[in-house]
Structures are given as structure tokens and as C-alpha cells.
Design goal:
The chain is an alpha/beta fold. The chain is 43% helix and 15% strand. The protein is built from 28 helices and 27 strands. Strand 18, helix 23 and strand 19 (601-604) form a beta-alpha-beta unit. Helix 26 packs across helix 27. Mean pLDDT is 92; it is low at 507-514. Bound molecules: beta-D-fucopyranose. It is an enzyme of class 3 (hydrolase). Keywords: Carbohydrate metabolism, Cellulose degradation, DNA-binding, Glycosidase, Hydrolase, Polysaccharide degradation, Transcription, Transcription regulation. It comes from Microtetraspora glauca. Its EC number is 3.2.1.21.
């Protein structure tokens, strides 16, 4: 791999946003924003405590050689009610920040809207109201008035697609609405606000202003291998439709002053066109100086009749969103650096006059804090690969002026909270200590060199692990291959070293290089609980991702001791490159024995004992927290929990999430243990009700148990939800058919299956992603 130097004056920087780092959500007169309200817990505070520690953060950037810092301004800090009364202490903060940046020789780039609308405006309709766009212009002018003399570059909006469609259509972001019509109307008002804001900035003399869009190439699975392919008509239409919804809905109004012709009929059908007034698009299409491009991952689709619309893409009926056969980040996002080149090529061809800047690009990977730092090789490789792609685009003539990495700090990743790690600087959220990760040091070198060195980031070897763990190479090898003959202390030391260094066992890599079979085993044990839909999703999605990656799948059922032996023999004989294992619930040795073969293996579900085997799990703890918080928000105080078998890791996590949330509010738990089936739910609920006559709610760790609780409530003459609220978990089909329909936590089966397949591909790619956590979601129905 050669060196790659970047143009002179190429701008190297980092990005952050106000809600994700500032904290201090109720200080110095800041008003609440929709994200304060949307968050289940008040997780916007303390965030990175940047409001207090901004000087330290600027110093960090200075040490890294950062030339430009893109931050966002919190609207409700400046205008607590969204308009009208100005909160000067809020403006003072940005004043101080900008001065500090300038002192450090860092160019400030300000984004005016990074998703944190003042709640006061939301209360009056938020982005569905045209007035919000007018208020935005007032806000933009005000901020410019205070810091415009010193701010180099302005962005009106960050990713309006996300704010409009994840906020109003799928509802996974604030304000959590689920109305396709609202999403289109909001998108238009955001575009209008961009136009009005731009006008306000220009009126005061802003020299360089633009907008930031999240752009992704839209491709079919077939095009992943060969972009020059001619697509069948239906697929071409599917691609065009999603491209219109995701990319062109924003690109064309901003850069051409009109909506894409093929989008308008869709908008009209869903939302009407009454919200688009004459003259709006002239405003929206005023020239910008710079287009910010955020790139993370591609979108892969194909036509499939009768597929329902994806909630985030209203109007996408008949389009199947496909998985990408590539490695993934811990967020589960496929890694495809060439996607960045595709986006840039397209922009250069279609809008050759537009100057570009990569305003976000980066990755969430699990970090391990070791005594001597954080060796985040995967993050480094991710950025490196994307910079190489960017270098190629520059050679092709793309007018990209700079690269701003997302993100400087580990911070609040919106609905996913603190567990996502996008920073090149680690933040310990209990002490707020900052610690540079290896990726930060590496980025510092890239900046100093104005480009990439010849050497790629190096993966640790068996020897490095041995040195760190203070044991012999042979011991490491025995632990990595799960051999029993190692003391628990030595094993623990090796496991720690492996985690800290991000070591990927070499046996696997060797076997891959020397004896690739291009086949993969999908091993299914039948889980005791809720298995059917999960198993069919696993078969469907794992197979399609892995086949897409050119692998032949061997399906193997692990239901008897003899089948276990057969599977192990098959894997030991290196008949496969890798194994996807869906283990039974509860303890089982098959995973361990398969791991010992040295062939890469990934698991569905967190293993009961810590090991080196990477896995995909659902956020059971987070789901249980959301369920319990929801009951508390509905005013319930005496909440009982019906708990499934405690040998299941998922049940342990669900109980832990429930207890933690009660604890936060100083409430005592009431626990009844149950088995798996409805009957045991009835019994446990009876027990709870007789032991705690004042009980006003029940959280059950599964829907089956919750349905049992419904039955027990009926039997006891209690009205649901008036006398007793009930929340389940899993969102099985039956949950929507009970009377009344059950409030529950949705566990996304397809996402788990996709993540599982991609995790294996990551492993085969030599990446060390120890786990992927799939988020769960509260589904509110009538039992609460
Ligand atoms: C982008 C957002 C940013 C961050 C990254 C991971 O969509 O602009 O705030 O959440 O994704």
C-alpha cells in the first residue's frame, strides 16, 4: 500500500454536535429540547460535560493538529422558547468557544441545526408547522450576529433526512412521531428553513455557508459486485425511488431549486402538496458555497412486489432493503469505503460546480481501555480505508476541500445513548476523563503528514498478546483454541490481553489463506423460547448475506449429541471457512468446542461465560429499562415483575434493566419467578397479586408470561390498564391480538440475523468486532 498525500490546504478536522456533548441541559437558562424530552432517561446530561470542559477539548484538538472544528449550536440555549426572548448566557458560551478555538488556531465551523429543536416549538407543531422555519431564520440571524465575525464556515442543517424521517416517520428519533405525511411536511419545512436561514446569514455577511446532507449510494446487490451492470427495469425503479427519497429529495431542491419530478407524485399521495408554497423553492435553491457530505454506509435495495414500506422510507412499498455482504461496525453498519467514492463521483458529475467537504465519517467499535491506552485498530482501519477512497475521488477530480472525522469524543449517540463509541478520544463518563485512543494519535500523524503513510495500521500478533499477558506464546495459543489445560489466572490474563489489543486469532486467518473453502456452516440448535420466527429470520437473512458474499451455506442442525460430533468433525476438517451458531438457550459446550477448532465462529446471544467468540445480542437491558420507565411515566409505582427462567442470559439482563430503573426512582421490586409458558405466567401473576394487593403494574420478561398475567388480572376482576398495567417483551404475533392488545418491547429478529451474518464476514475479514448490540424498541398498545 503506497503513501497517499492530500492537496495542499486540504482541511483536516473533527465534528461534534451540541446535544451529544454539551450536557448542562438546564444551566444558564437553556430551555428543553425535543431530545431532552424524547430520551427515556435524561441521558443528555452530563454527556461529555463539554459546556464546562470546552477549553480542555479545544486543547486536545490543538494537540492533534486539528485545523477545523465543526460544532453545533443548541437552539434552546440561545432561544429557550425557540423564538423571542434571547438567552444571552447561552450565546456567551459559543462566544467563549469560538474565541478559544481561534486562540488555538482552529477554524470554527458552526452548524445551526443538529436535531435539537426547542421543545417549546415542538409543542406548537415543531417542523410540521411552517412557523418553525421562520423562527429558524430569526435564530440563525441572532447567532450570526454574535459570532459571525469570527466563524469561518456555516452550515444551516445537519442531515435533514434523519431529522424528518427518523423523527416523524419511523419515530426512532425525537420527536418520535410516526406519520409519513408529517415526515414529508417536516422535510419541506426544514428545506425552507435552510433557505431562510441562508438568507439571514448572507444578509449579515456570511462568507461561506451551506448545508450538510447524509448521502448514500443506492445500489442493488448485483451492483455491489459490478457497478456497470444494466439493471432490470423493476430494480432500476426501486433504486431510483429510494435515491429520490433519501438523496435527491434534498440535493435537488438545494442545488437545483426544484424537487425531483419522480418524487412529487409520491409526496402528493402521502402528504398532499399544500405545504409547498409558491416561491419556497426559489429560496431553498439559493446558491450555497459548500455542500457537507456525511457518509457512513450504502443503501442496498431491489424490487420485491408486496414488500410493505419501510417505516423510515414512506412510499417504499415493493422495495426490499437488502443486506450487504461486508464487514460491519459494532453499530451493524456495513463497511464500504468505495461507497464514499460513488457518492463523490455522482456529485462531481451532476453538480460539478459545487464545492464539497466530508463533514462526517467514522465508526462505532467496541473499545477496551487497557493500561497503556486504547488500541482501536478497527476504527483506524475504517478511517484509513475511507481516506484512501477519498484520495481516489480527488484523483478523479472531486472538489473535496476537507475531511472532518466523526467524532472527536465518545458521546451520546442519540437513541442509542452512551454505548456507541465513535470518538477518537475516549471519555470516561463517570470521571469525564479524556483519553486519546490510538486512532487519535494515528490521525494526528495523518494530519502532520497531510496524508497516509505507506504502512497500514498493524494487527497484533500472538507474540504481542503473550508479551502483554506475561505468559508464553504456547499458553496464548492454548487459550485462543479453548484448551482446558490453562490455569484460570493465565486464561483471564490472556483474554484480557486479547480484548485490549483487538487480537484476531491467527489460526483462522491462516486456515483462510491456505485453505479457503468459500463455504460457511449455519448451525442451528433449537432455542427453547420464542425460537420459530427468529430461526426463520436467521435462515433467510444469514443465507442471503453470506450467499451475497459468495459463500456456500451448509445448514446443520445441532439437536443430538451425535449431531454435535458430526458438526465438530466437519469444522475440524476445515470444510468451512466459518460458523454461524444459533445456540440453544442456557449453557452448552458446542460453542466452546467449535471455537477450539480455530475456525472463526459467531454466536447469536451473549454467551454465559466470557470467551473470545464474537456475538450478536439484543439490548435486553435497555428494553427492560424502557418498559419500566414507560410504566413509571404512566404514574405506576407498585410494579411487579414476572421473570422467566433465570438460567437464560436474556432473562437475567431483562431483570437487571428492570431493577436498575426501579432503583433510580427509589422503588422496591416485587419479583415472581416463572417458567416459559403462559400457564406459569398466570401462576406467577396470581402470586404477585396476592402478595402485593396494591400492585398497579406488571412487567413480564416475555409476552407469553405477560399474556398469562392478563388472564390472571381478568380472573381477579382487575381492569387492564385502569387497575393494572401490563408490559411484555418480544412483541410476538399474539401480543397484538390480546384484549386489550399488549404493550411490549420489540426485538428485531431480522436485524439480529443480519448483524450475525455481517459479524461473521467481519471476522473472516480479519476484524475484531467482539459484539454487536441490536437495539430494542417500546411498542405502546392498550395494556398501559
Ligand atoms: C450522523 C449524525 C451524528 C452521529 C453520526 C454517527 O448521522 O449526524 O450526529 O450520530 O451519525
Amino acid at each position: 500500500m503506497g503513501t497517499a498525500s492530500f492537496p495542499e490546504n486540504f482541511v483536516w478536522g473533527v465534528s461534534t454536535s451540541a446535544f451529544q456533548i454539551e450536557g448542562a441541559t438546564d444551566q444558564d437558562g437553556r430551555g428543553p429540547s425535543i431530545w431532552d424530552r424524547f430520551a427515556d432517561e435524561a441521558y443528555g446530561d452530563p454527556a461529555c460535560d463539554h459546556y464546562v470542559r470546552y477549553r480542555e477539548d479545544v486543547r486536545l484538538m490543538q494537540d492533534l493538529g486539528i485545523a477545523a472544528y465543526r460544532f453545533s449550536v443548541s437552539w434552546s440555549r440561545v432561544l429557550p422558547e425557540g423564538h423571542g426572548r434571547v438567552n444571552n448566557p447561552g450565546l456567551d458560551f459559543y462566544d467563549r468557544l469560538v474565541d478559544e478555538l481561534l486562540r488555538a488556531g482552529i477554524a470554527p465551523y458552526a452548524t445551526l441545526y443538529h436535531w435539537d429543536l426547542p421543545q417549546a416549538l415542538q409543542d406548537r407543531g415543531g417542523w410540521t408547522s411552517r412557523d418553525t422555519a421562520l423562527h429558524f431564520a430569526e435564530y440563525a440571524g441572532l447567532v450570526y450576529d454574535r459570532i459571525g465575525d469570527r466563524v469561518d464556515t456555516w452550515f444551516t442543517f445537519n442531515e435533514p433526512w434523519v431529522a424528518a424521517f427518523l423523527g416523524h416517520a419511523s419515530g426512532v428519533h425525537a420527536p418520535g412521531r410516526q406519520s409519513a405525511a408529517d415526515a414529508f411536511v417536516s422535510a419541506h419545512h426544514m428545506l425552507l428553513a435552510h433557505g431562510l436561514g441562508l438568507e439571514a446569514l448572507r444578509a449579515q455577511g456570511a462568507a461561506r455557508a451551506g448545508v450538510v446532507l447524509n448521502l448514500s449510494p443506492v445500489l442493488t446487490p448485483a451492483q455491489l459486485g459490478d457497478m456497470s451492470l444494466d439493471l432490470p427495469e423493476e430494480d432500476a425503479e426501486a433504486v431510483a425511488r429510494i435515491d429520490a427519497l433519501h438523496n435527491r429529495q434534498f440535493l435537488e431542491p438545494v442545488l437545483r431549486g426544484h424537487y425531483p419530478a419522480d418524487l412529487l407524485p409520491l409526496v402528493e399521495k402521502i402528504a398532499g402538496l399544500g405545504h409547498i408554497h409558491d416561491g419556497d423553492l426559489d429560496l431553498v435553491g439559493r446558491p450555497i458555497d459548500l455542500l457537507g457530505v456525511n457518509y457512513y454506509t450504502p443503501i442496498v435495495v431491489r424490487a420485491q412486489p408486496s414488500t410493505p414500506a419501510d417505516p423510515a422510507f414512506p412510499g417504499s412499498e415493493g422495495v426490499l432493503f437488502c443486506s450487504v455482504p461486508t464487514a460491519v461496525t459494532a453499530m451493524g453498519w456495513p463497511i464500504m469505503p468505495s461507497g464514499l467514492s460513488l457518492v463523490l463521483r455522482r456529485l462531481s458529475e451532476e453538480y460539478p460546480e459545487t464545492e464539497l467537504m466530508i463533514t462526517e465519517n467514522g465508526a462505532d467499535f467496541v473499545d477496551v481501555v487497557a493500561g497503556d491506552g486504547i488500541h482501536d485498530l478497527d476504527r483506524m482501519s475504517f478511517v484509513e480505508e475511507h481516506l484512501r477512497a477519498l484520495r481516489t475521488s480527488l484523483d478523479e477530480g472531486a472538489r473535496v476541500r476537507g475531511y472532518l472525522l466523526w467524532s472527536l469524543l465518545d458521546c451520546v449517540e442519540w437513541a442509542d445513548g452512551y454505548r456507541r463509541k465513535f470518538g477518537i478520544v475516549h471519555v470516561d463518563f463517570t470521571t469525564q476523563r479524556r483519553l486519546l485512543k490510538d486512532s487519535a494519535l494515528w490521525y494526528r500523524d495523518v494530519i502532520k503528514r497531510n496524508g497516509l503513510g505507506a504502512e497500514r495500521p498493524k494487527r497484533p500478533t500472538l507474540e504481542t498478546v503473550a508479551a502483554r499477558a506475561g505468559v508464553s506464546r504456547a499458553t496464548v495459543s492454548r487459550v485462543v483454541n479453548s484448551e482446558a489445560s490453562v490455569s484460570p489466572e493465565a486464561r483471564a490474563a490472556v483474554l484480557r490481553a486479547v480484548q485490549e489489543l483487538g487480537y484476531v486469532p491467527n489460526a483462522a486467518a491462516r486456515s483462510l489463506v491456505t485453505r479457503r473453502t468459500d463455504s460457511v456452516a449455519l448451525v442451528l440448535s433449537v432455542p427453547r423460547h420464542g425460537g420459530d420466527s427468529l430461526i426463520s429470520a436467521v435462515v433467510q437473512y444469514v443465507t442471503s448475506v453470506l450467499e451475497g458474499a459468495g459463500k456456500q451455506i451448509t445448514l446443520m442442525l445441532a439437536d443430538t449429541a451425535e449431531s454435535h460430533r458430526r458438526i465438530i468433525r466437519h469444522v475440524e476438517a476445515r470444510q468451512v471457512d466459518g460458523v454461524v451458531l444459533v445456540p440453544p438457550d442456557g449453557p452448552d459446550t458446542l460453542a466452546e468446542r467449535l471455537a477450539r477448532t480455530g475456525v472463526p465462529i459467531v454466536l447469536l446471544g451473549r454467551p454465559a461465560i466470557a470467551s473470545l467468540v464474537p456475538y450478536v445480542e439484543v439490548d435486553n437491558t435497555g428494553g427492560a429499562k424502557a418498559a419500566t420507565r414507560h410504566l413509571l411515566d404512566r404514574g405506576r409505582r407498585r410494579i411487579g415483575v414476572i421473570c422467566g427462567p433465570m438460567d437464560l442470559v436474556a432473562v437475567q439482563d431483562r431483570l437487571a434493566g428492570h431493577l436498575a430503573t426501579l432503583h433510580e426512582d427509589g422503588l422496591r421490586p416485587a419479583i415472581a419467578l416463572a417458567g416459559l409458558d403462559r400457564r406459569s405466567g398466570v401462576t406467577a401473576a396470581r402470586e404477585l397479586l396476592s402478595g402485593h394487593p396494591d400492585l398497579d403494574a406488571v412487567f413480564a420478561t416475555s409476552d407469553e408470561l405477560a399474556i398469562g398475567a392478563l388472564e390472571a388480572a381478568r380472573e381477579a376482576g382487575l381492569r387492564v390498564p385502569q387497575d393494572l398495567a401490563i408490559v411484555g417483551f418480544d412483541d410476538i404475533h399474539a401480543a397484538s391480538c390480546t384484549t386489550p392488545p399488549l404493550t411490549t418491547i420489540r426485538v428485531p429478529t431480522a436485524d439480529q440475523a443480519l448483524a450475525l451474518a455481517r459479524l461473521l464476514l467481519s471476522r473472516l475479514d480479519g476484524r475484531h468486532t467482539p459484539l454487536v448490540v441490536v437495539p430494542t424498541r417500546l411498542v405502546v398498545r392498550d395494556t398501559t
